[in-house]
Amino acid sequence: MRHAVQHTGLIGGVVEARAYQLEAVDEALAGSMLLVLPTAAGKTAVAWMVIAEILRKTQGFVLFIAPTNPLVDQHIKNLKLVIKNIEEMNLISMTGSTTPEKRKKLWKSARIIVATPQVVRNDVLKGTLSLKKCSLLVVDEAHHSTGKHAMAQTAELYNSECTNPLILGMTASPGSKTELVGEICERLKIQRIHMKTSKEPMLAKYLARLEIQEIVVNVPEKIRELVNPLELWINGIVDRERRTGRYVRPGNPSFGGLSEAMSRAQHAISLGDKTAYSSVSQIATAMTLNHLINNLLTQGIAAAREFLENSSEITNNTSKSVQNFHKDLRIIELKQNLNDMDEIHTKVGTVRRLIRQRLRRDPQSKVIVFASFRNTVESLDHALNDLKGVKSVQVIGQSDRSGKKGLKPKQQIEVLNKFREGEYNVLVATSVAEEGLDIPSADLVIFYEPVGSEIRTIQRRGRTGRHREGEVMVLVAEGTRDENAKISAEKKEKNMQRAVQRIRRKLPRKVHEDLSNLNNFLVKNDVEEITASDFIKNIRKENRPEMTEIDNNELPQINNKTKPLDPSNYRPKGQTGLDEFRKS
Prior knowledge:
The chain is an alpha/beta fold and about 575 residues long. It has helices at about 20-30, 45-55, 70-80, 85-90, 100-105, 115-125, 150-160, 180-190, 200-205, 220-245, 255-270, 275-300, 300-315, 320-325, 330-340, 345-360, 375-385, 410-420, 455-460, 480-505, 530-540, 580-584, and strands spanning about 5, 35, 60-65, 90-95, 110-115, 135-140, 165-170, 190-195, 210-215, 365-370, 390-395, 425-430, 440-445, 470-475, 520-525, 530.
């Protein structure tokens, strides 16, 4: 039976009622809170209900910040569907595409504002916007709230300006390091963390089943041939630095080992060792080679070509080591070979096969392919052109690179809308499409490579299985960095829950359980209408573990017949016992 939430005056029967969401609403209204739920578990619906209650209780405005323009656009569309009398609230969006003069007039006119954090931060610092009357700040994708990110700075400005600040931070992936989770909570001034995992009974039944499969592919021999001279080159540098004692890690050269070696060389320079200058130059070359080798082995021709193009563009204002790198005959020859080659990496053929199989099984399917590099996205899009039934489109970031223009925010939104509406059925994207976007009918997500970040892995995976069963295919190039990245992401994801729990125990306020903030919420179905608190209590009762009066489990039979130990085992070595005298 379908249940729907109704809120006094502001939310109609659009939001499906889930007890764990209403529990989160109750806590969020009790103080600033970080909400951690799996992707597709309905974090945004929690925000809608909190917004409705805050607008009822206060005369202030609500500010909803999201990291990208497409996400801002998505939140605007959803709020229009959910909030009653939205015209009276004067819902507006604020992004970089809105001119400063226009923003100055609009800030004071709305009660619900959805914006990018950069715009909010900039206008607060200029004095164009005051956050004193902001009754609620909703922070979507709150894991960005660290370092110098505008999201963290916006939250700090809000907490310093507002007399009674209330923040709702939302994320599926707060990070695996306790320090980072702690920083998010510190910057947002979080008082509680509300976290549910996909295994909890109240939540599990609402999540579509997600099948994750790893596909190992071989690296083509031609690419191995291109890599061989580069490996000889980097191994020579690392062997030299091992002899100096600066590169100390065993095994093949790695970026971590090179970073440590660079730190040692720079420390040696600070101590007056002039021979370390040569090491710094050589290690910098090895780092560039490491990136190039990994691009060839795990990505292919297009990504390696892009890497070389990007690094050569800045040779006029960078170190001599990079300039010398591009003047080296081995690199000049490699560039010529790459320019004459089409994409030959096995992963491209695998992507074609997976998409063809999926569309044969269900012609109405939609597919997203994630790749890290724009040239790889371009190559994949080109490789899919001749597949029957495939209508593919690229989504990339907005910055211009290597003489190629990016997609402006409006163009990104337009492409995503066309994909959502069915004009395209395959989306080939860089990281710009990873976060938050609700593309409900993406039945298959293909990772062109595993990523070492647990946050990006969770975000990518969350683009499918949002409303029905989905598949995730991860392509792993055998014997390459792909294998380490996959292991790293899995380990970090397991550590994430531990990190959240550690910080949770340190926060000032404990779980708010009395459901006293839900008095204005009703849950309706075809038969009855009950209060939200009674609805939660009923669901809790249904999911309570049953206790049996009699334990019918059989206890294992324990054999108590043990052989007595010889008395000599109890005496110090060489000591004679009374039993010995008896024998004699």
